[in-house]
Amino acid sequence: MSNDSYHKLDQEVPEPPPQCPMNGTFSPFTQDYIADPYGVLEPLREDTPVFYSEKLQMLVLTRMEDITKVFLDPDTFSSDNVQDPVFPPAEETIELLSAPDFNPVAVMSNKQEPDHSRIRQYTKKGFSNRRMKVLEPYIRQRSHDLIDEMIQLGPPCDFVEHFATPLPGETIFRFLGFPESDDDQLREWCGDRLSFSWGKPTPEEQADIANKMLAYWRYCREFVARRNEEPADDLTSELLADHKNNPDDLSYLEVESIIYGLSFAGHEPVTLLLCNSLLSLLNHDTAWGEICNDPTLIPGALEEVIRFESPQIGWRRVATTDTEIAGIKVPEGTRIHLAIGAANHQPDIFDDPKQFDIHRTNSRNNISFGKGNHYCLGAKMARFEAKIALGILAERLPTLRIPQDQQLERIANVSFRGPTALTVEW
Ligand code: HEM
Fold it and tell me: Which end of the chain is more exposed for a tag (fewer CB within 10 A), N or C?
């Protein structure tokens, strides 16, 4: 596995930074954190805003100011490690993913400059207003179809399974150009990537996920080869045209690897955004009723969801050189956990941050999509898709509610946050 691999499986963990506050208990995998990460992070942000988590073996940053500085200095704080498993994978997993044809390369989130910007500028063209317009009727139609199916099945019904998973999955597959007939198979292969790179899967789970990743990568390669022969109106064909026009600037393997990466990036975070939107809006006294009465409130409400209960509350970096953060010496190689959720709940930036307030005027100052050269390429698409979906849900199911006695289970993950299932009634 080369240093340029999409997922690097052999990370080194250096000694903790000297003279840094040590914390032997903090971990995103504890029940307390999974239930209420903001409650766990708040006293830490106030008392020791930069500390070393012995359980994660990472330096943890909790303040907006420090996280922003790190995002804006990609030369000192590389994103090389953002797609790697948090904990060393089992031998069998490493063996499985050492298959000679499993060779996706780092292309965007985990690629460094100057190659990162070179690859990003080609991909960015694909996220055009025209492409969003082409997708819009599809997102609308599928939202209506899925609500029809929910109505046939319930109430009650699991929103994760019947709406929040299929809608973003199918949307990104159409965006890439994958045919509808492959959707069920694709969903199975793409599942669990959340757990592979940011969770704590058992060796058995890792083997299952690794096999699916292999199958999915092979599918991507076959699909790109097909589009190379027969282009269509989709992102894959656009990238292949760019490759043909500039073969020395955008390689064929980079095109294959972009397709591999986008299927995850464009799917799970939006699934979690839709779930966290319903949880925040329906658990509030008036918010759902307000957006049902006045759908123009939806964009502001979504922005507040992205601040208050973001689908992504943590991210990673690694120090490329000896450096310093907030007066603490940070040796080269230190792995860094950016506690995005803590910064989004910082009281000197957001008044009364524990309050979900769809009329808040500065929700957009959240940092959930990152900042700087790696700023989320899909932010516009995520907002666009969620706005359409919420609008149609509010119009069709204004009496939507969450049963009072529901015991919610959330995913155990260093980066992503959302429920594993969400029963809704109407
Ligand atoms: C609510 C949903 C989403 C959230 C919270 C989110 C969050 C993020 C964050 C925090 C980053 C920054 C990574 C870094 O600085 O290292 C990122 C990067 C990225 N996101 Fe998203 N994302 C979402 C949806 C999407 C969607 C829908 C797509 C694609 C269709 C997408 C594609 C990407 C890509 C390609 C990058 C890497 C950009 C680069 O490195 O230049 N994301 N996202």
Answer: N
